[in-house]
Each structure stands twice: as structure tokens, then as C-alpha cells.
Amino acid sequence: MLQVDRSLIFQIINFIVLVFLLVRFLFKPVLRALDRRSQKIRSELEEIEKTREELRKLKEKYEEEERSIQQRYKEALERANQEALQMKATIIEEAYQEAEKIKREYETRAQKEIERLHKELREEIAEIAIAIAGKILQEHITPQIQERLIDELLDAALNRIESRLSIAHEK
Amino acid sequence: MEELLNPHVIFWIWVLPVTKTVIATWLVMAFLVVGSILLTRKMTLVPGRLQNVVELFVEAILNLIEGMSPGYGRQFLPLVGTLALFIGTSNLANLVPGLQAPTGNFNTTLALALIVFFAVPYYGIRNQGLRNYLKTYISPSPILAPFHIIGEITRTLSLALRLFGNILGEEIIIAILFMLAPLFLPVPMMLFSIFTGIIQAYIFTILTVVYLSASVEKAGH
């Protein structure tokens, strides 16, 4: 019949020994290989993830840079426009002022010219009038008239002297 | 028949009898250890075909354990994996002429069942402490403590007897068939014994995992 004998102890020892042997020769090496593989896969995945992250950052940086360049370009353009407008305004203003100055200059010069011409004209007319008057006098003057004229001139001169004297006296 | 049940003692080592079963056990052990050494000698990062088989087996055991008690795969692997390999190989030892399956002897299966019997409190205490482990005996009520203990003893016996009975039964059937018609009749039975041998190994293994996972679960869960 069914017998439990001392070989039971043997079998227990056998099994325990087998556990240790299999741990040593089977489970540990296999687990190590599995771990190593999963470790490698994990590290490679991490590497990929890291590279992807770096790429993403680089892309962001470039985009940022592009945006800032665009921005700077726009600002520069605007500034240039502004400056051009201002310059235009100053140039026009200056031109107006210059024109005004030139105009005034010419006006004063023209005025002076006119005055000079007037003066010359008057002198010429006076000369001509004197000449004409001299000629007329030469032709028409009589000794009586001459005498009367001298008298009148002397009278006038006397009158003026008297009036000057009286004014000086009054003072 | 009597020879199958209680094999001769071939020689003694001190007070321990070396029976045919013990020798068969040694052969199975040697086969497993030498096979392991050969298969794991050159573990490469990219596995070859043989390495794949070994890794597949280990991962299958790990998954079996993780499925029932997540996180304990590596802790239980030595015991559970050795049980599966040893019982499976032993059951198939029947097919080698002149060899008797070590698992066809009650001493072997009782030894395995006793190891599970003691492994359950060992892992239970190791993982949740003595207090918490003892609490599982009085949960949900202290009245159930004797039944818990009886359950542990009977399930150990049933583990041992189930495996022993199945394998011995097959051996006996094959032996009888040999006597009746030695030429062809035993062959289908031997083929069938491959199937039942693997099934029995699987049953023993998965029951062990169930008992172990119950032992590491917190009381009241």
C-alpha cells in the first residue's frame, strides 16, 4: 500500500537543491538577459525621446528667432518710413524757408534797384530839366528879367536868413 | 504493481534510502541542470532560437504569477519555476524506457506538496509580517481558524495525491497495456500521457501560485 518512508526527506532535499541549482544556472541568467534587454530598450527609448525633445527645442528656438527677425525687420521698416516722412517734412520746410529767404532777398534787391533807378531817373530828369531850362533861359531871358530874378532870389535869400535868425532868436 | 508503489531500496546513504525513484529524480535534476547550463551559457542581447525558448518559459511563469499577485513574479519565480520544470520533466520521464516518473511515487509528490505547505507561511510572513499573516487565519471570524488550518492540510494532501494518482495511474495503465498487447496498444496511451503529464504539471504549478498569492494578500481583502 501507499507508504511514506524516509525517501520523502531525500526528495525534499533534492527539490531544494534543484531550486538552488536552477536559480544559479537558469533563472538568474535568463532574468539578467531579460533585464539587460529591457534596460537597453529603455535607454534607447530615452535617447530617442531626448533627441526628439532637443529637436523640438531647436525648432522652437529657430521659430522664435525667425519671429524676432521678422519683428525687427518690421520695426526697422517702420522706423525708416517714419524717418523718411520726417525728412520729407523737414526738407519741404527748409525749402519753403529758403524760398522765402530768396524771395525776400530779391524783393529787397528789387526795391533797392527801383530806388536807385528812381534816383538816377530823377537826377537825369533834373539834369535834362536844368539843361532845357538853361537853353530856354539863354534864348528868352532879358536883362530886365535877369535883374528881377536876381532881386527875387536875393529877396528870398534875405527872407530865409531873417526867418532863420528869428527862429534862433526865439530859441 | 507493488514495485511501482514502493520501489526497491537500491542502496543507503547514511539513514536515507536511495530508491529507484530517488535515482530517477537525480536523473531528472541532472537533465534540468545540464540543460540550463547549456542553454544559458551564451546569453546574447538578441536571442537565438534556444534562448528564446528559455526566455519564453521564464516569462510565461513570471506572467502566470504576476497575473495573480502582481509584483511578486521575481520572488516566487524560483519555487514556481522549479516546480513546473521538475514536475513536467518528471511526468515525461515515463516515456524513457526503464525510467519511472519520480512523480509517480507518493514520497516525491508529498515532498513537493510539503514544500508548498511551508512556502505559503514563509512568503506570507516575509511579505506582510507575522501579525498580518496570522490575521488571515482569523478573518473574517476567529471561528474559521480551525477550518483555515484544516484547509491548508487537506489542500496539501490533495496536491500530493492528485499528482501522484494521475501519474501512477497512467504508469499502471501503460504497464497493463504492455502486458496485454505489448506491440501497438501502449503507444496512444503514452502519447496521451505526454498531454496529461503537462496538464498535471500545470495544475500543480497554478495551484501553488494561487496558494502563494493568497498568502501575500492582506487580510480582509
Automatic annotation (TrEMBL), chain A:
Chief localisation class: membrane
Coiled-coil residues: 31-131
Keywords: ATP synthesis, Cell membrane, CF(0), Coiled coil, Hydrogen ion transport, Ion transport, Membrane, Transmembrane, Transmembrane helix, Transport
A Pfam family that the UniProt record links to this protein: ATP-synt_B
Subunit text: F-type ATPases have 2 components, F(1) - the catalytic core - and F(0) - the membrane proton channel. F(1) has five subunits: alpha(3), beta(3), gamma(1), delta(1), epsilon(1). F(0) has three main subunits: a(1), b(2) and c(10-14). The alpha and beta chains form an alternating ring which encloses part of the gamma chain. F(1) is attached to F(0) by a central stalk formed by the gamma and epsilon chains, while a peripheral stalk is formed by the delta and b chains.
Record-linked PANTHER family: ATP SYNTHASE SUBUNIT B', CHLOROPLASTIC
NCBIfam families: ATP_synt_b
Name of the molecule in the record: ATP synthase subunit b
Native source organism of the sequence: Thermatribacter velox
Gene name of the encoded protein: atpF
From TrEMBL, chain B:
Positions of transmembrane segments: 12-39, 76-96, 108-125, 163-185, 191-214
Domain of life the protein comes from: Bacteria
Membrane topology type: Multi-pass membrane protein
Keywords annotated in UniProt: ATP synthesis, Cell membrane, CF(0), Hydrogen ion transport, Ion transport, Membrane, Transmembrane, Transmembrane helix, Transport
Cross-referenced InterPro entries: ATP_syn_F0_a_bact/chloroplast, ATP_synth_F0_asu, ATP_synth_F0_asu_AS, F0_ATP_A_sf
Protein purpose: Key component of the proton channel; it plays a direct role in the translocation of protons across the membrane.
UniProt cross-references to NCBIfam families, sorted A to Z: ATP_synt_6_or_A, PRK05815.2-3
Descriptive protein name: ATP synthase subunit a
Organism name: Thermatribacter velox
Gene this chain is encoded by: atpB
